[in-house]
Structures are given as structure tokens and as C-alpha cells.
Amino acid sequence: MYIALLSYTAPRNEVDYALAEHAEWLRSQFEHGLFLVSGKGNEDADQVIITRPCLRGKLDAVLATDPLVLQRLAHYRVIEFTATRTAGEFLTVNEALAS
What we know:
Elements: E1 2-8, H1 12-31, E2 35-40, E3 47-51, H2 56-63, H3 67-70, E4 74-80, H4 95-98
Antiparallel strand pairs: 1-3, 1-4, 2-3
């Protein structure tokens, strides 16, 4: 699984113009089943995304299509982790523990 931390690299007023495109892109990733949770970050990131387990190359390719990244308004830092404990409602997400 991954945590993707999005940090803005441009002034907020420039980022604001691209947020509608970014929101549509996020919606698409949720529909495709890759993203599980997203929201506003606090100190270390402007936005946080938690993803399903997948190949790192696939995730990197998807994140590279974010309109904020394409317009050089933000960049991602990705943290990979192996979930060793999972709440019951997430067992279907964490295939490694479901079996």
C-alpha cells in the first residue's frame, strides 16, 4: 500500500486555477479503484492519498497524470508500507491479510 503526499510548488492562487481539473482526476482514480482515501493534509503535505496495493510503477505513472503535476504546480512524495494489521472492514483492500 502507499501513502502519496502532494505538496504544492507554486503559489496557492496558481494552484487554485487547476483544482477543478485535479478534483476530476481524483474522482477518476477512485472510480478505477486505485485510491481509497484522500483529503487535505496538515503540516507535511497539502493533500494526502491512501491507495490500494499495486505495483509502484503503476502508481508513479498514475500520479504523473495529475493535472497539478503536469502543470508543475505540485509534486508527490510516496511512502510505501506493508500493512501487517488491518481493521475488518479493510480486509478486502489488504489482500495480503485477507487470505
